[in-house]
Structure formats: structure tokens, C-alpha cells
Amino acid sequence: MPCQCVEYGWQDDLRIKMCIDMNAEDFTTVHHELGHNFYQRAYKEQPVLFRESANDGFHEATGDVISLSVTPKYLVDIGWLEEEPGVEGDLGFLLNLALDKIAFLPFALVVDQWRWQIFNGEIAPENYNEAWWVLREEYQGITPPVERNETHFDQVPSITFQEIHLICATSWLTFNSFNSIVPYVKLLAMKDNLIVALFMAMKRPVRSCRPC
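The chain above was modelled as a monomer; its predicted structure follows.
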């Protein structure tokens, strides 16, 4: 799916906005988003502050309830399959479901363990990457393909502002506050500066692409 999907709910106006292809994954995702719409419909009469789920997991679980209805029998009912596969077809269906749900659990546990150990001070900033791989090996049995250290830990938020700094520097622009960056970036997006910045990152590690 080339873009992020999102569902909207305004009283009786429920919508899904997403880019899709004709494949099983996107078909299932559409039904997941419909689950969010069902949630929005159920809570539409509540005050605005109470329309969202108190726990994101509950909202997502509601979406998954609908997506789990995409079974071979359902496909027959809507005319997408001529006949329902026999019992022998259940194995592939259940294996696909297990790979989607169960295989993700260890990774989800790693992410939350890592986050909470940072929040409670068990993991110091200088050990973010090392701690990440310790947890991945412990819970997932995965080791990095090459030797890793803290210089390999690339934070997307940090890189975002580093790119802005680089673009402005290559354009001989200076700014006194973050609010002054936005108009410049919009202007520069129509020029070659962003391409230059990305080309520099292609030629050498992003960390070394620092303007003088």
C-alpha cells in the first residue's frame, strides 16, 4: 500500500481514505478500517473528548474483529470465490493468520520493554542501540548481521531536523527560530537543494553529511 490509510468519523459521515491495490492484504485492511468506523458509529453521540478509545488497543481490536471476518466462506458469499475450500484449505489460512498475529508478538514485546526501560532509566541514551539488540536476541532470537554500535543508531526525528539544517545551509539560509524554517523548506522543495542533500546522504553516511 503506497500511502497510509486513515478512517474518519463525523456523526453520520463515516469515511475511509486509503490507496489500495487489488490484493488480499489491502482487501483485509479495508475491513479493518471498517471496524474503526463501527467504533466511531457506536460512540458518535458522545462528547468529542469521549469518542476516541480510552485505550488504542481496544480501537485496534475492534478493527481486527471485522478483518477476521474475511474468511473463505465470506469470499464465497460476496462472489469472489466460486466455492469454499475444504478442510485442507484451513491450514494455509490459519498459518497466514498466525504469521500475521503470533509472529509479531515477540517484536511488540521488545519494543515496549525497550521503551519502558528507557523511561524508567534502566537504559541510558548512550546505550540505546546496544540495549535494543540485547532485547531482540533475548525475545526474538535475532542477532544483527554485522557488528553494531551506538553510531548505527539513527533516530528518525533527529535526522529530520538534520536534513532541514543541511538544506538551509546548502542554500546559504539562516534562521533564528524553528517557525521560520517552514516557509523556506516549502520554497526549497521546488529547487534542487533537497535533491543535493539526499544525494549527499546516498554517497556517504547521513551522520557525516553535516554542513560546515
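The longest strand covers residues 6-10.
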